[in-house]
Each structure stands twice: as structure tokens, then as C-alpha cells.
Write a structure and sequence with these properties.
With 169 residues, this protein is an alpha+beta fold. It has 2 domains: 99 residues, Hemagglutinin Ectodomain, Chain B (Alpha-Beta Complex); 54 residues, Roll (Nucleotide Exchange Factor Grpe, Chain A, domain 2). The protein contains 3 helices and 6 strands; from the N terminus they run αααββββββ. The strands form 2 sheets. A 3-stranded antiparallel sheet has the order 1-4-5. The chain has a 3-stranded mixed sheet with strand order 2-6-3, with no helix packed on it. A hairpin with a 2-residue loop joins β4 and β5.
Length: 169
């Protein structure tokens, strides 16, 4: 074999210029690939930082919300302590009044936080009520709530706890 036969693309002709063009094209594609890889890695790092930052902000917001609720509940705790002192002194009338005041104060704090009692007058609604018992009740329309065993509550528009009820058959 001659030297010309051993070397591909050796010699003259259109094939001689094709090799440098292909090398240039490969180098260009590698450069483009590296740019895309770098951009993708930067985007990934930015997304990870965003995810961590939003998780941190969410935790801080939750802590602030808890702090605000606890601050509002502290006067209720103070009222309960006063009621306990009154109970030690056996002042039953004052104890009952104190418990009523504490209950009202706590209900007000929870209402300001968005808590509302679920309405139990009327027909049973499985979205808001949990039927614990169905029984025949004279004069009651079937499917109506006849007794509330445990109050239910909404927090905003979400059911926090369904009302536990007895339903007429």
C-alpha cells in the first residue's frame, strides 16, 4: 500500500476541505452543548435556591401566624388562672362567671382567626356533618338533624371538624 492509500482524505480534491469543516462543525456543536449545559446547571441552581428560600419563608410565616395566635390566647390563659384562684376560694358564683368570660374570650379570639361553627339546623349534609346515629323521631323529617353530639367548625371555607349528629330516619 502506498502512503496515499493509508491516509483517508489525503490528496487533492473535494474531500480535502471537508475534514476541517467537519472539525469546525464538531467544535461549534461542542461549544453550543457546553453553553446549554452551563445554562441548565445555572437554572437548576437558581431553582434549588428558590425552593429553599420559599420553604424558609413559608416556615417563617407559619411561625409568625402561630405567634400572633398565641399572643391573642395569653389573656384567655390569664383569665383561666384567675378562675382557678376563685375556685380555690370556693366562690362558685364567681367561678361560673369567670368560666363564662373565659369561654367568651376564647370564642372571640378563635372567631377573629376565622373559626365559625357549622350550622346544624335542617337537613344532614355529609360535607359538614358526621352521622353517628340514625333513629326514628316522631314529627321529624327523615334526613334532618335532630341532635348535635359534638359541634363542628369551619376555618375559613374549610371544614376543620365535622359536626357529629343524630339524624332522623
Amino acid at each position: 500500500m502506498t502512503e496515499h492509500e493509508l491516509k483517508p482524505n489525503a490528496g487533492t480534491g473535494p474531500e480535502e476541505g471537508a475534514v476541517p469543516a467537519e472539525v469546525d462543525r464538531i467544535a461549534e456543536l461542542e461549544r453550543e452543548r457546553d453553553e446549554y449545559l452551563d445554562a441548565l446547571q445555572r437554572l437548576k441552581a437558581e431553582f434549588d435556591n428558590f425552593r429553599k428560600r420559599t420553604a424558609s419563608e413559608r416556615a417563617a410565616q407559619s411561625a409568625r401566624a402561630s405567634e400572633a395566635l398565641v399572643k391573642e390566647l395569653l389573656p384567655v390563659v390569664d383569665d383561666l388562672e384567675r378562675a382557678l384562684v376563685a375556685a380555690e376560694e370556693h366562690e362558685e358564683a364567681k367561678l361560673e362567671d369567670g368560666v363564662r368570660l373565659v369561654h367568651r374570650a376564647l370564642a372571640d379570639v378563635l372567631a377573629r382567626a376565622g373559626l365559625a361553627e357549622i350550622d346544624t339546623n335542617g337537613r344532614f349534609d355529609p360535607h359538614f356533618h358526621e352521622a353517628l346515629l340514625a333513629q326514628p323521631v316522631e314529627g321529624a323529617e327523615p334526613g334532618s338533624v335532630v341532635q348535635v353530639l359534638q359541634k363542628g367548625y369551619l376555618l375559613g371555607d374549610r371544614v376543620l371538624r365535622p359536626a357529629r349528629v343524630v339524624v332522623a330516619e
